[in-house]
Amino acid sequence: MAHPTVAVLERHLHLYRRLWRASVFSSFILPVLFLISIGIGVGGYVGQIQGVDYLAWIVPGVMASTAFQMAIGESTYSVLGDFKWVRAYHAMRATPVEVHDMVAGWMLYILFRVEIAAVVFLGVTGLFGALHSPWAALTPLIAALVAVAAAAPVTAFAASIEHDSYFALLFRFVMIPSTLFAGVFFPVDQLPEPVRLLAYLSPLWHGVELSRAATLGVAPPWPAALHVGCLALFAVAGLAWAMTAFRKRLQD
């Protein structure tokens, strides 16, 4: 018998094998189209930012935001559905699978999804000449850290609610503002200071700055260890919350 965590991962992969075609556009094609339209199209008018062409400047932001949005999107309806409608997690609990196996298996699935998209995107952007440093090879690892930092607390949130209407609030007031104001499209130092402080609280900003430092071969605005520490804090706190939420939900 496979390890319980691996068994949970296999279950999610088996479902994805039947549904993967529905995710091809959003996971692979849309980020590349976005890169071409904004990075090259708008970039022709913007010119350079911080001494580099706009395409090279926006590439790491698009990669990090893709990981961020994928992690949040996958961790909403799928998690709530497996509790409320499918009751898959209740079925797992009747087996040797423990709560930490459920959470760990789900996070591994998220990483699987994000890493494939990140590697494909990295290869495409390399063809455009948008990678200026060999440190760009680290960006899939950064995307993985961003994914866990976003997916863990959202998974916990999805396991704690009873109605999917809350997800509209999550998308509107967390995911979209983070994408717009976390340094993906323009430097956050152009924002008013109160809004800039909110950007610093987003795990996406830390991922964007680490990715940009890697692809451009420059130092991030904060020490790299501090950016990594902030992302790790989101991930660890989110995982702890997720396991607590799963245990409470499975008692119902």
Automatic annotation (TrEMBL):
<dbReference type="InterPro" id="IPR000412">
    <property type="entry name" value="ABC_2_transport"/>
</dbReference>
<dbReference type="GO" id="GO:0140359">
    <property type="term" value="F:ABC-type transporter activity"/>
</dbReference>
<dbReference type="Pfam" id="PF01061">
    <property type="entry name" value="ABC2_membrane"/>
</dbReference>
<dbReference type="GO" id="GO:0043190">
    <property type="term" value="C:ATP-binding cassette (ABC) transporter complex"/>
</dbReference>
<keyword id="KW-0812">Transmembrane</keyword>
<keyword id="KW-0046">Antibiotic resistance</keyword>
<feature type="transmembrane region" description="Helical">
    <location>
        <begin position="224"/>
        <end position="246"/>
    </location>
</feature>
<feature type="transmembrane region" description="Helical">
    <location>
        <begin position="54"/>
        <end position="72"/>
    </location>
</feature>
<dbReference type="InterPro" id="IPR013525">
    <property type="entry name" value="ABC2_TM"/>
</dbReference>
<keyword id="KW-0813">Transport</keyword>
<feature type="domain" description="ABC transmembrane type-2">
    <location>
        <begin position="22"/>
        <end position="249"/>
    </location>
</feature>
<dbReference type="InterPro" id="IPR047817">
    <property type="entry name" value="ABC2_TM_bact-type"/>
</dbReference>
<dbReference type="InterPro" id="IPR051784">
    <property type="entry name" value="Nod_factor_ABC_transporter"/>
</dbReference>
<dbReference type="GO" id="GO:0046677">
    <property type="term" value="P:response to antibiotic"/>
</dbReference>
<feature type="transmembrane region" description="Helical">
    <location>
        <begin position="166"/>
        <end position="188"/>
    </location>
</feature>
<feature type="transmembrane region" description="Helical">
    <location>
        <begin position="137"/>
        <end position="159"/>
    </location>
</feature>
<protein>
    <recommendedName>
        <fullName>Transport permease protein</fullName>
    </recommendedName>
</protein>
<keyword id="KW-1133">Transmembrane helix</keyword>
<keyword id="KW-0472">Membrane</keyword>
<comment type="similarity">
    <text>Belongs to the ABC-2 integral membrane protein family.</text>
</comment>
<feature type="transmembrane region" description="Helical">
    <location>
        <begin position="110"/>
        <end position="131"/>
    </location>
</feature>
<keyword id="KW-1003">Cell membrane</keyword>
<feature type="transmembrane region" description="Helical">
    <location>
        <begin position="19"/>
        <end position="42"/>
    </location>
</feature>
